[in-house]
Amino acid sequence: MLILFSKRESEICPQLVTNTSAGERVNQVESTGRLPPSPGKPFPEWPTSAHCFNMSTWKVVDSRVAGISKASISPSTWKVLNILQSREFQAYLVGGCVRDLLLKKTPKDFDVITSATLDEVKREFHRVIVVGRQFPICRVYIKGSIVEVSSFETTRKNAKERKTIISPEMASDCDSNSLIRWKNCLQRDFTINSLFYDPSSNTIYDYVDGIKDAIILRGLRIAARLGLVFSKETAQAIRDFSSSVTTLDKSRLMMEMNSMMAYGAAGPSILLLQKFKLLEILLPIHDAYVSLQMTSESGLLASMLMKLLFCADKFLSADRPSECSLWLGLLAFHLALLLHPQDALVVWTFASILYHGEWKTAVGFARESASARVRFVPELRSHSENEADDLLLEKVSRLASLVKSSIRAFVDANALAALNAKYCGASRSGLVFVSPKMGNTVAEIFSVLTPGIRSHATTGRKARGVDYELLKRGNPDEVRLVLGKIIIDAMNSGGVAKGKEEEPADLKAPTSLYSLFRC
């Protein structure tokens, strides 16, 4: 993680807290009045007064203004909160569930933290099991669910003995409950997991700008879907803090990316991610491609990637989403073409088999479609050979293998680093946020495009319309059908207008991706 700083009135104050040796950092904060330096990062000298805590940045937010719906809180969680608070204990939702609520998602589980000790929690509920040795918590079994309850007291006992220095200014400005919450949030892994939410009072306590880290991606998603334009101030704030998305865990990044890509706004989302320098973090190879296409003669919107995404958007919407394997499959397909440009006939046949599901029909459609000239650089070679069926089948199977291999760049950090070093220079890095399991799911989509492809056929599908319920569940046959249609539509949109069939001389030979992508 990174430490971000902002200067306010000649005072440098922390905006994010790293998870490096959390206990030691809290010890040093309380004993010295400052955060210790992060390894490898020089730390500026701070004044030792309580103002270095910059309590002016501590926020108390109305959850209704933040858009949280209490209906998303489970009845069992409400019961736990109400019982603890009725006994005059402080009790809050904390961690990932608050993050999910802010992002308008229904949390999978809820964590509660309370001022009650674990023994006091056990006395309040009929069935409680304490788990964990170093950091014990209570698992409360209630209303058929499990709610995990931790204690502020446990955090205090696990911290080393230390002398807490609180200046008169801090003592007068800060109540004891705020100090307890603040100390606890410093020991959490990510800022977005350091929020405390009391739904009974509609209050969110934010001591480390955790809300800001979560709303960057959410803001881009909403803007992409609705075609909104950010104010100058908001746009600059997103640029300034774009790197804070690296503090989100992989599953959260995946969820946010899926929210942008699977609901009919993939094209605008990629454009916004690139504009605000988030694409270079999330999809660095595609970011290099987008940057290159923006300077090309035809322009970014005429590029194959954008054609694919905008064609995908025509099939999807907020009430007709796809499972993430669709857009991941599109990105993997496009990456394979970047690394290994193909003849247009091979791509036509590849897409046609995915869509039609039967070799004879698919190859006939592909040969007819390939009669029109399509130009995408660097993905397609300048011309298509009229291959015999056996050789064409071999090339299509080879492309399917290349697509499956390209998936590694989305799930394997080492594979991504190797591609970055080869095509974009060592200075460009990126995050891997796709799980190996999802990578295997995407690979399965292309498993039918094997040397035995002649026998492949969809079953039980007479109409070629999209079954959106199956698509939402990630049914492989449905994903193949839609993926094939998207590629076909994108290829059709890349046709060269009459009178421009003769391509420039510099495009007639396959273009080296290395020379294109050296950035």
Automatic annotation (TrEMBL):
Domain of life: Eukaryota
InterPro entries noted in UniProt: NT_sf, PolA_pol_head_dom, PolyA_RNA-bd, tRNA_ntf/polyA_polymerase_I
Positions of the tRNA nucleotidyltransferase/poly(A) polymerase RNA and SrmB- binding domain: 230-288
GO biological process, one term: tRNA 3'-terminal CCA addition
GO MF term set: nucleotide binding; nucleotidyltransferase activity; RNA binding
UniProt cross-references to CDD domains, sorted A to Z: NT_ClassII-CCAase
Domain Poly A polymerase head: 91-213
Keywords annotated in UniProt: Nucleotide-binding, RNA-binding, Transferase
Family classification: Belongs to the tRNA nucleotidyltransferase/poly(A) polymerase family.
Protein name: Uncharacterized protein
Source organism per UniProt: Spirodela intermedia (Intermediate duckweed)
